[in-house]
Specification:
By secondary structure, this protein is α+β, with helices and mostly antiparallel strands. It is about 20% helix and about 15% strand. The chain has a six-stranded mixed beta sheet with strand order 3-4-2-1-11-10, covered by helices on one side. A hairpin with a 2-residue loop joins strand 6 and strand 7.
Length: about 400
């Protein structure tokens, strides 16, 4: 279905814990000054992924990488308290995370003040992990890293294990012993799944994991309260064929969290990587965050996948979604596929090709009932803003093709 976008009616809108160095606020009060009042959650697909294993460690080993500096400055400008970074290559032992904290976030950039995250969590992901099975039915079983054919046969697409990983950074303590991960949950074990019929062999269906990276429930201690940070990065619903295997997988990756927060009846089938069954205890407070690779109206997602969150009774949506004036400007200037979309460009979070799919709202930060949503935003400055240099015009990706999304919440 084709729809026109009318700009005149749009608004202008192995787990680890470690230590960082110093940091204070750029735009607002420090976490300690705001403790007990407002906490800022954020997600940022920072494109800190590299084409070869070890390259990210090399780039972060000195404070001189231009893209990493831009990522760090963006984080410093928004100044979140709890942050998910998508597309941060996983390195066992957390070395890459510590290098980013020490060489980039702990140093001020262009007048932005350093930022301090005393706690972090990272862990293995499925991207680039060989499955040992010919998942795509081509080239036999490919087990040598570094090629597209290898990526197609991995549990999640990647040239090497850990590519496109994740990390959670926090100014507040993480209850690392209570973290739940769902890296190994099998897609076939989700009742009513939408695995493409007839596409995968029996051998593939028997071992194929649902999460293309991983799903983490990371409990954050806010004084005497706990908020569960539910983070993931579902596969893009593209780069497939008529079977729509990636679109369907994206849908069910999003569904995993929708079921997890949906009470015992919906979540009883789930099991985590320690074998513990079931979902989140009813009444628990949570924030869902991540690059969901799904827009509620536009793009290629299967059955409007992200509406499983946006229409969920356990989620307390803010009065207005996070927005920016930069997204409106970019969609208007770039035209192309943006003109045929129906979603409000103020809510876009990804600056994608104007040919296809156009700019989309794919990055989400969604608080639960029991949390009161406050201010929010998308870091997308307009071309007359000095910080526009951190996002650019979409032709050259100076930082990432995604924008940081943030949401303030208060304990209700």
């Amino acid at each position: 279905m084709n729809h026109s976008r009318t700009f005149s009616r749009r608004a202008t809108l192995a787990s680890l814990a470690g230590a960082a160095l110093t940091g204070t606020a750029t735009l607002r009060a420090s976490a300690s000054e705001r403790y007990g009042r407002t906490v800022r959650f954020a997600t940022f697909n920072a494109s800190l992924n590299r084409a070869t294993q070890g390259a990210l460690v090399t780039d972060l080993s000195t404070p001189d990488n231009a893209q990493a500096r831009n990522v760090a400055e963006t984080i410093q400008r928004v100044n979140p308290d709890i942050l998910l970074i998508n597309e941060f290559d996983y390195v066992e032992g957390g070395g890459a995370v510590r290098l980013f904290l020490d060489n980039y976030l702990s140093r001020g950039h262009n007048g932005a003040r350093p930022i301090h995250f005393p706690h972090y969590f990272t862990g293995p992901v499925n991207t680039g992990v060989p499955s040992g099975v010919d998942l795509d039915g081509k080239n036999g079983v490919v087990t040598t890293p570094g090629s597209d054919a290898y990526g197609q046969d991995a549990f999640g697409y990647g040239f090497f294990p850990g590519q496109y990983g994740m990390v959670v950074l926090s100014k507040f303590p993480i209850d690392t012993r209570a973290v739940r991960t769902f890296q190994h949950f099998l897609w076939k074990d989700m009742p009513g799944n939408v695995i493409p019929p007839g596409y995968y062999s029996d051998a593939a269906r028997a071992i194929l994991r649902l999460s293309s990276k991983s799903h983490w429930d990371v409990p954050i201690r806010l004084g005497h309260e706990t908020v569960h940070f539910l983070v993931s990065h579902p596969t893009p619903p593209t780069f497939d064929g008529a079977e729509d295997r990636n679109g369907r997988r994206n849908h069910d990756e999003i569904r995993l969290w929708a079921d997890y927060i949906g009470g015992h009846t919906r979540s009883a089938y789930l099991y985590d990587d320690k074998g513990v069954r079931g979902g989140l205890r009813p009444g628990s407070r949570f924030v869902i965050a991540g690059d969901q690779n799904a827009d509620p109206y536009d793009g290629d997602s299967y059955d409007h996948a992200v509406r499983q969150f946006l229409d969920h009774p356990a989620i307390n949506l803010p009065a207005k979604p996070p927005a920016s004036a930069g997204g409106v400007e970019a969609a208007k200037l770039q035209g192309g596929a943006n003109i045929g979309q129906i979603g409000d460009p103020a809510y876009d979070t990804g600056d994608f090709s104007d040919t296809a799919p156009g700019n989309l709202r794919v990055d989400h930060v969604l608080p639960s009932k029991g949390l009161l949503p406050g201010r929010n935003g998308v870091f997308w400055p307009t071309s007359d803003d000095p910080l526009y240099r951190l996002v650019g015009d979409g032709r050259t990706v100076v930082t990432s093709d995604h924008r940081m999304v943030w949401q303030d919440v208060r304990l209700g």
